[in-house]
Structures are given as C-alpha cells and as structure tokens.
Design brief:
four-stranded antiparallel sheet, 1 helix, 155 residues, 3% helix, mainly beta, seven-stranded mixed sheet
Length: 155
C-alpha cells in the first residue's frame, strides 16, 4: 500500500500536488545544491520545500530569496560568465525552474544542461532555483520539491 504525504506548493499561480515516499528519496531534508563558477562550488541556501525521506515527511515554507539571503555576501561573477547547477544526489530532480530578480523585476532564466549565463549588465541579481522530483508515470505527482536561493554580483 502506498503512503502519500500531500504537498501543496504554489509558484506563480501554479499548484503542484502530491508527494510519495516510493521514489527513492532519502534524508530528512532535500539535498544540498551548489552553483559552480570557474571550477569553484558555492552552496546555495535552502528555502521552501516539501520532502519525504527516511520515513518522515515535512513541508517548510520560508520567505522569498531576497529576504532569505539578507546579509549574505553576493557571489562575484564576470558579465556573461557560465554558471552550473550541481547536486550530488540520486535520483536527480527531473523538473526545474530558475527565476532571476533584479530591481523588483522577475525574469525566467533559460537553463540548458544545468548551465546558464550570468547577466551582462552590472548589478546584484537574486535567484530562485526550484526543483521537483516528479513521478514519471502519474501527471502532477511530486515526490519532493525544493527551492534554493543565491545572489550574484556582476561587475
């Protein structure tokens, strides 16, 4: 018999429902996520998540990326520099979304093969990196999700 932990996650008006513990997720929290820039790994900050691993389920709601990262030093990058997402965890999430925030404006970031490019304009940019472990057979069934935040300074 399957056990389900109901997770409701609302992002940009989209609600994703359902978490199951039958997907091979482990740990009490989602795994650590990193960005890698010029062969240097920097840990991101875990925000909101729903997770069921090791027989325990939990949903945690936090503030948004800007508030979550208050007081943290931005990672300095060059304009147009390549940035890679790294997560040493199996199974890997199979759905993700990245949003950039700058001057109260949100922009969807195009990611290809876990890479994206830093902005070319100087400034401070906040990011939300949302990942989901979606069921491959049942539509809209998430086995876990997590939102990670980081801040870049382009100069």
């Amino acid at each position: 018999m399957k056990k389900y932990l109901l997770c409701l996650m609302s992002l940009f008006g989209l609600t994703i429902m359902g978490c199951s513990n039958n997907y091979g997720l482990s740990g009490e929290k989602p795994p650590k996520a990193f960005i890698e820039i010029d062969n240097k790994k920097v840990e991101t900050t875990l925000g909101t998540y729903c997770w069921q691993g090791d027989g325990k389920g939990e949903c945690v709601d936090t503030v948004g990326p800007v508030e979550l990262l208050e007081g943290k030093e931005p990672v300095k990058v060059k304009p147009g520099e390549s940035i890679t997402f790294v997560m040493d965890y199996k199974p890997q999430p199979n759905e993700f979304h990245v949003v950039q925030m700058n001057n109260n404006k949100e922009t969807k970031v195009m990611v290809k093969d876990n890479h994206f490019t830093a902005p070319t304009q100087s400034g401070v940019y906040y990011y939300s990196y949302g990942v989901w472990w979606m069921d491959e057979k049942e539509a809209n069934l998430s086995h876990g999700d997590a939102f990670y935040a980081f801040v870049l300074e382009v100069n």
